[in-house]
Amino acid sequence: MNDRNESTVGVGGGRSPVGRHLIRLLQAAQWRVEVFSRNDLAAHGALPPSAPIANWVFASPIWAVAEHLAFLGASGARRLVAISSTSRFTKSASADRAERELAQLIEASEERVRAWAGASGVDCTILRPTLIYGGGDDRNISEVAAFIRRFGVFPLVGPAGGLRQPIHVEDVAAACVAALPCRGLKPAYDISGGEVLPYREMVARVFRAMGHSPRFITVPRSVVRAGIGLVRLFPRFRAASPGMAERMMSDMAFDHSEASRDFGFRPRPFVLGPQDVRAAGPEADRSAAHIVL
After folding, report:
1. Cβ within 8 Å of residue 18, ≥6 positions away
2. Each residue of 48-101: pLDDT tens digit?
3. Which of 109, 159, 202, 215 has its CA 20 to 30 A from that of 48?
4. Domain ranges of the chain
């Protein structure tokens, strides 16, 4: 990578959980990294950076990418890796209107980015991770840990046997780094963790990582909405929704074999350490994370 334009990568969403790992891994791979926050991009508008940047990775939400296509075009973008979410599929038929609207936003944003890339001659790859965890500042496993920390138990709807495939935040970043130099990939890939397990077992592992024995209460579906309403009285859990509870019985595992074949994606199994269930500090930036639970 001797040519500055080819050895430089612009990173959007560098302060997000994925973005922080992404920057470190890109630097380790000998990329020259220039980081742009969402505020930076908004301030730039359609003005290009001081020198062309051909390679871009966005760790911010896919709709943030769609908002800044003019900037990417002005920057001389020729390669783009963007992170979306499997929520596009898992929330499309949710009983919760906000979740359905999120799925629609993700789908529309993906299509807008892909259409722009096709018209602009930009080689674009979209990665759709499943439930992201790691480091205690995600909005999935850390939310489960926060609930356990607050109430000492975790409510389940029925046997909560829906399958999950959590993906570590560093593996999401590593997938971006692996895909970036590869040309001619598929337009989009689902990326998931290295282990499939039932929702109940996933939560049980959170208890154990916190040093507790699992304690569950079974909640009838008929009282889910009322229970969620009570939980949302606590500021930390205002994002809780009936759809999250209903999905405990739904399979949300995704095959990542195509990503493994095409750019060597190798995710780790779901093993939690104390750092993954710690209470996030006030400096945590979780703005780019989606609740996939």
Report:
1. 59, 83, 132, 169, 172, 173, 176, 288, 289
2. 677 899 999 999 999 999 999 999 999 999 999 999 999 999 999 888 899 999
3. 109
4. 4-274
